[in-house]
Every structure is written in C-alpha cells, then in structure tokens.
Amino acid sequence: MAQFRPKKLDLSCFINIRIIRDHAKRKVFEEHETERQALRYIIRNTTLPQRLPFDPSATSSTSNLVTAELKMFRQRLEGLPKDPVFDADLTKLGFKCTPSGQFVKINEPEEFFDFFFTDNARWNEVRKEAFHACVRRELYQRLATANIRPLYLPQLSIERPVQEPHLPILVSNPGVLSKHVVVIVNERVQDLAIWSYRILCRQGGINDGSAVGFVDHLRSVFKGEEVLADSPTSTGILKTPNAQSDPSVIILNPGQLLYSHRFNRALTYASWQAFPRESAVHETPRIHPEHNTVSGNRKSEEHVKFVFNNVLNNAQYVDPEAQLYILGIADGGDSVVELLNSEWPKYCSRIAAIALTQPTSTSSTITDPALASFLTQNAKSWMVSPEPFNTLLQKPQPAPTPISRSFSDALNALPDTMTVTVQKSVVPTAPEYVGAEGLVKTESQEIAVVPRGEEVDEIKEIANEIEEWKQDVICETFASGVSDYHENIVPSIYKHVLEWFREVQMEKDG
C-alpha cells in the first residue's frame, strides 16, 4: 500500500491520526483521479459471460475454459464517455469576426480565442478544430473575392472531385496569364494559405496571420501587368480581353496531405487527430498510407515537385516566359531548394528571386554550382533572432580551397612541445665594451614550452563544438524581428519581401 501514501505530509499544524488519514486519502485521490474514473467506467459497464460447462474432450488450446477466460470482460460502447461535438459555427462557439478581420468573443469583444477552454484535452482539441474550420471558411471566402480560387490536384480541376482523393492549392484566375508569378510554399504543419494560427486568432487577425494581407499588399506594391488575353495557350477561363492583371499568386499546400473519404476533403495531421471518434477514449482513426493520401502528393517533397512540373511548367496556368518569385516557408522552402538542386536547368531562366524563412538547407546539400551561385546573389532568408529586424546575421561562406583549414584542424596540428624564441635587451658591461655604455645589445634565446594537456584538450573540444554548430547558410541571412516561434516570421517580413520582389522585377524589366 506504499503507492497509495503521500510522499510528503504537512505536519506544521496541530494534527491527529484522523487528519493524517484524511490528508493521505485526499492526496492519493487527486493523484490517481484519472485512473480511478477509468476503473469506475470499466466496472460499471462490464458483464460476465455465462458460465460454460467443462468439456473434457476439448484440447487445452481450444478449451471452453480458455474461451471463457478470454471473454471474461467486455466493455459496452454506450457506457463509455461520449466524444465531444462542436459545430463549426462562429456564433455557436461564441465568437464573431470583426470588420478588421479579428476573431473575438461575442460577449467580451476584447477577448480572443482561448485553447484551454476546459481541463479535458480532448474537448479542447475538438473545439479548436471547429474554430479553425470557421477561420478557414472566412479566409477562403475573402480570397475568392480577390479571384484566388482552389485548383484540385492531381485532377487539375477547378471543381471539387467527388469521392476521389484530392487536395487543393490556390491560384489566381486560371487562363489569365501574368508576366510575374509569386509562388508561396507553406510549411508541412499548416493549413492552406495560413501562416500562423497564433497570430490569426489574436490581434493580428486574418490579415496578418494568413494570405489575405499578403495578397492585398502584393497588389499595392506591384503595378498591373497586361493580360495575355490573346495568348494561344490561354484556356478562356475567367479571361477578360485587354484587361489589366496583378501578379499571379500560386499557394502550394504541403500541409493538407491526408485525405478523408468520409468528409471528402484534404486535411492536416492536426485536423485528423480531431476527427470524430466512437467515444472519447477511442484511438484516432488509423491512416492508410495509400487510401488516405493523394496520388503524386503523398509527401511534401512530392507535392512541390508535382506543382512545379504540372502547374508552374504548364502553359495553361503560367506563361512560359513569366518570372517566378518564390517564398519558401520553413521546411517548405527546404523542399523547393531540394527540387531546384535536382532540376535547376529546367527553371534557371524563370526564377527571379527566392525568399526563405528559417531554412535548414546548407551549402553541403547544394550539388549544383549554378544554383549555389544563384542563391548567393538572388536569395535571402530570415531567421528567428533577438536582433533587430533585417539585421544581417550571416553571409554564405565561399567555397573551401585545398589550403584552407578549420580552427580545430589547426589546433590538432599543434606539436606537444613548442620552441619559442624570446628577444631580450642586454646592456653591455664587459671590459671590451668600455666606452659603449649607451649601446643596447639584443640577444635571442630559445625556450621549450610544453602546453598543459588538459587546457589544450578543452580548447580543442570547444573548437569542435563551434565547428559543429556553426550555421552554414546558402544565402544572406537576416533577423526577422521574431524571437519566439518561426511560424510568426512571415507576418513580420512579408511586406519587406514583397518590396524586395518589386525591386528585383524593376531591375529585370529595366
């Protein structure tokens, strides 16, 4: 019974044996309350099977006794706690969307969404997903008013397929071909066109936390380009003759790679965890590696490659002479760099600039010298850092030469014993120097110095750690002004990135 006794007792006041006993019970019940409630559910909803007569003719492996032992306990579904249900309705959830795009509580307009609604993790998770569904609905409606609509893969259809695995990306009007295309590759844990739920669900609102503010600022920075309405490759979808078009936008979707046949939609792993279950204690529905994924888009790297080969390299959606400006977010940017490293000759003439956030790619992963040179000159990255915004943190290192050595290699090359030449000044006093008292003689003396072994080993160890943790960047790296979560980088830098894209465009256009 030692496990049911508290480890510490507060004996600072007047007590008796009854107080100690009650205190012990209370502490034990608080610590094991979850297990106790689970046992109560099992005991209340368990029925014993009917007693079976012994059959001596049955073998030991298939005897009725073994069968009865295996069927001794049975849980009834109606006795288990119900899985929570929250409707994806802002009003029912107690929230509203303000004209400025902030999601606030109806009764307390100064308060925002709070994840810890209850002490039950499952209730909080399901409620959060219902709230996020409302946010996504509002987001896609606003993007639709800006003529940015979903294109479903791998069917390449603007109509949602019925009971066929698919996932959406967002594109500007198909058929309206622009000379400049901004391609956004999000990270693999976020929903389509959402940068940060932390910002979207709070003061930043839908403008800073998603692609809504990005698109608005893009059209205010870039000038209108002439629509290639007479292009023979145009499909005629949403085409306006002799109209003016803003730079096109294509937003990839490496996060929603799971597909639900039940709901006929693509979703992230976080949304899959919030799926309705038979009860609150049932496990998450299993993910089938083939049936619950989309062909050609089962991984984020496959998705990026599919979009580049079938959308960006397709004259039906993107003009073959259009300049591409890429924004790669976290691991989404790493997938882009990996693809370009293997297929750089195909896209080298079309990509104008690349912006990355929190990349992990290093120069050792770039095997194409032409791509490495391009990234050095035409790419920038922003990292989480306590430094002020846009402070230069690091530049890409030049290619190593055969004679160059690292600091740790230089230390390892040091001999155990070193000879040091010491110069000292001596005033001559010998008789042969009579009359030359004002002269000073310099003598050299060699001294053997034996370094202390422990100190040298410690220096070498520190040097090796510095070499190991030193960031090997592929392009100029700047501080983002964000010091906490990397998903907050894009809301902090997107205006500056778009202005940089505009400068690159003006330089190329002359």
Account of the protein in words:
It comes from Cryomyces minteri. This is Arb2 domain-containing protein. GO terms for molecular function: siRNA binding. InterPro entries: Arb2 (IPR048263), Arb2_dom (IPR053858). Residues 86-388 form the Arb2 domain. The protein has 510 residues and is α/β, with parallel strands linked by helices. The chain folds into 2 domains: 2-75, no CATH class; 142-398 and 477-509, Rossmann fold. It contains 15 helices and 17 strands. The protein has a 9-stranded mixed sheet with strand order 3-4-8-5-11-12-13-17-14, sandwiched between helices. A two-stranded antiparallel sheet has the order 1-2. α11 links the parallel β11 and β12 (351-357). α10 packs parallel to α11 (331-347). The radius of gyration is 34 Å and the shape is globular.
Pick out its properties.
single chain, 510 residues, alpha/beta, Rossmann fold, 2 domains, 9-stranded mixed sheet, two-stranded antiparallel sheet, 15 helices, 17 strands, 34% helix, globular, siRNA binding, Arb2_dom
